[in-house]
Amino acid sequence: MTTTHEPLGIAEARSQLGTLVARAVHGHQPTTIRRSTTERAVLISEADYQELLRARRELEAGQVREAIAAHARGDREMATYDSEEALYADLGLPTP
């Protein structure tokens, strides 16, 4: 999955939305859409999005397995957390 086009402004993306969706779905070509210099989003196919979610879950599961293994080796103490956010932060993961 590679982006070959410059980011599009919202108005331009809106006028080309059908083409951009087709390109994402059939060609697996993402499109970056900018609202401002700091606000950007990427249009991708649902299949590509599901693949990214799967990869994220695998990465997170691997990090949790490593934390459990580290505890079993005595390299990490068992911790309790007051919130899901605290757990994710301790594992260095983004909060879902």
UniProtKB/TrEMBL annotation:
Superkingdom classification of source: Bacteria
Any Pfam family the entry gives: PhdYeFM_antitox
Function statement: Antitoxin component of a type II toxin-antitoxin (TA) system.
Family as reported in the entry's similarity comment: Belongs to the phD/YefM antitoxin family.
NCBIfam families: phd_fam
Protein name stated in the entry: Antitoxin
Organism ancestry: Bacteria, Bacillati, Actinomycetota, Actinomycetes, Streptosporangiales
